[in-house]
Amino acid sequence: MTYPACISKKDTNLSRRIINRTQVNSLRERVREIVFDQLNTGNRSAISGLSTILTDEMIIEDEDFDRLSNLYSDFRESGEPENAMALSTALQERYPDRFDEEYAPEKTFRTPNWQRLYDLGVYPIWTLETEKGRVEIQLDPLSAPFTVSSIDSLTRAGVYDDVVFHRVVKNFVVQGGDFERRDGLGGPDYTLPTEPSFESFERGAVGIASSGTDTEGAQYFIMHQWAPHLDGNYTRFGRVIRGMDVVDRMQVGDRVLKAEIY
What we know:
The chain is α+β, with helices and mostly antiparallel strands and 262 residues long. 35% of the residues lie in helices and 18% in strands. Strands 1-2-7-5-6-4-3-8 form an eight-stranded antiparallel β-barrel.
């Protein structure tokens, strides 16, 4: 390439670097805008998904400490423990010298019914009769006894019956089990410990929704396809053995007519 006499190749390269830097800064500001918009909405699922970004020094600046700290206080005072915990964890990691308050939700852990788990055996089956058809899930009480015990108890109490799938992300997951609010923000009056599995979250894997370590409740999700970034961070308590075609047809608002365990 030839350049006009008044413009050198060095000048052109410098201009390109300036343009690239401008584009990067513009993208960075857009990401920041999205992050804080989501934080301000208080959407629990979105805030949980922001955990990595909230600790990124390229996105979250030193001057953002007060802003995030105030949001954390607001979540605590308004009774949103999952959001408060997510921000507490992020603040501790991003600002270790300025924030040392470890927040723990007031909910207590639910203790498994060990005799009932023994009676269920190694491979109990959880069936979901939905508006789209029947889904059969083989549970894994050896890997996730707290979670399976909770699923069993809630199922036998009938709370999963007539509950909608409130979240469907094509080529990712379908999620349901919010019997309290049915919008993805509800749960039981207890929490479950995170029970990470050696098994991967491949297609058909069933996990329990989480807002951070040891915050699991009643909401469950079924994988459309493999998502290795979930491995080690979420509890995998079962897998679909029949009915993945039903899962693939699921849409937001479809209901579980009847849930049973045998």
